[in-house]
Design brief:
Radius of gyration: 34 Å
Structural class: alpha/beta
Shape: globular
Order of helices and strands: HHHHHHHHHEHEHEHEHEHEHEEH
Number of helices: 16
Bound molecules: guanosine-5'-diphosphate
Strand content: 5-15%
Helix content: 40-55%
Strand order of the largest sheet: 3-2-4-1-5-6-7-8
Length: 385
């Protein structure tokens, strides 16, 4: 019966071996982390990998084309410029809109006497229209009301509207100059005192140009303010515009130069250059801005120098405007923060002071809250129409 004994022993050994193999393979299955890289899976026993199917799954990859289309899908679609002032002009007629109110007062009295005119004049001056333009406006209004024998308020309103449009200057050319030589981009420099909304305006204007199918590059030449380059880069990223920048404290002129050079290499339509505004002395300002412009012009002509003025700063803003116009040749003005400022009259003063048109107005902090200036729509906004 010896053979019976040996058969039993062989059976026990075989069963133990099978159990061992089963336990060992079972551990291997647990050691493979879910979602492990293919390399980790390859270390595991092949039949286990195949068993749970992990090793055969293709690794998720994104082709360059897919990445590009994903990026495009995430970009903002900026609002077309033409629609903007229609949407934003209501912001000129906020609760602080003294002009609309004063007009209402003027027209609601039975008889317009000298006191009524004085009050009206004071309101115009308070809206930063300036003494000269205020006198002209009141004069022409008095004449028109007398000559036309205007009795009802709707007609008087129409007269005021047309007189206001006249002093705002509907005939001025407010187009952004984007002419450029073949192979060169149009270059726009943004200048102004720190805090007026210069960097924000570069970002907003970039969006507006993108909405007009222009290719744009930003130059972050405000190297004095730590956050400015970062701020501009973020603005650009939202609409697929690149920003040329360097470390804080670098020479602004060299950043501007590099931006224009890169703009030429990339063949973009427009290079928008932000500049530093934290310059306390006129001499410093003169040196800095003059140098930035000269250095850029070694590469391409600067077609526009836009001065950014904060509309809420009144006479201070005008003083700044004067200083800037002495150091660089300003070609247009951007008036920011006109939303609810009750200071719309500054448009007229600044145009007279500098002899250049207001080309854009800022009416809020939203990305598309910058609009091309239009005299009629602006006056309608001021009058609360
Ligand atoms: P910079 O120092 O001249 O470059 O000024 P920034 O671009 O950093 O802007 C200063 C502040 O003004 C920011 O908080 C902007 O959001 C704000 N700002 C700019 N334009 C407008 C505008 O049109 N309306 C309002 N309400 N705020 C604005």
């Amino acid at each position: 019966m010896d053979w019976v004994f040996w058969v039993i022993v062989a059976g026990i050994v075989a069963a133990t071996a099978v159990a061992y193999v089963a336990v060992r393979f079972g551990r291997r299955v647990q050691q493979v982390e879910p979602g492990a890289e293919p390399a980790a899976l390859a270390d595991a026993t092949p039949d286990v990998s195949v068993a749970d199917g992990e090793a055969e799954k293709p690794v998720a990859t994104t082709t360059a084309d897919e990445a590009a289309s994903q990026a495009v899908a995430e970009l903002d679609t900026p609002e077309a410029p033409a629609a903007r002032l229609t949407r934003l002009r209501r912001r000129l007629a906020g609760s602080q809109n003294n002009l609309a109110r004063a007009l209402g007062d003027l027209l609601s009295v039975d008889k317009i006497d000298d006191d009524t005119w004085d009050d009206f004049e004071a309101t115009l001056i308070a809206s930063d229209l300036g003494v000269g333009p205020t006198n002209e406006l009141v004069e022409s209004l008095r004449k028109a009301l007398a000559v036309g024998g205007v009795s009802d308020s709707a007609s008087a309103r129409r007269v005021l509207r047309s007189e206001l449009i006249k002093i705002v200057g509907p005939e001025m050319d407010r187009e952004l100059t984007l002419d450029h030589a073949p192979q060169l981009p149009a270059v726009v420099m943004m200048v102004g005192v720190n805090g007026t909304g210069k960097t924000t305006t570069v970002g907003k204007l970039g969006r507006m140009l993108v909405a007009q199918d222009k290719t744009v590059l930003f130059g972050a030449a405000d190297t004095f303010r730590a956050a400015a380059a970062e701020q501009l880069t973020t603005w650009g990223e939202r609409v697929g515009v690149n920003t040329v920048r360097s470390e804080e404290g670098a020479d602004p002129a060299s950043v501007a130069f590099n931006a224009v050079e890169q703009g030429i290499t990339e063949g973009v339509d427009v290079v928008l250059v932000d500049t530093a505004g934290r310059l306390h002395t006129k001499v410093g300002l003169m040196d800095e801005l003059g140098k930035v412009k000269r250095v850029i012009e070694k590469k391409a002509p600067v077609g526009e120098v836009l001065l950014v003025i904060d509309a809420t700063t009144g006479q201070n803003g005008l003083t700044q405007a004067r200083i800037f116009s002495e150091v660089v040749n300003i070609t247009g003005v951007v008036l920011t923060k006109l939303d609810g400022s009750a200071k719309g009259g500054i448009v007229v003063q600044v145009q007279r002071e500098l002899g250049v048109p207001v080309k854009f107005i800022g009416l809020g902090e939203g990305p598309d809250d910058l609009a091309p200036f239009d005299a009629e729509q602006f006056v309608d906004g001021l009058l609360g129409d």
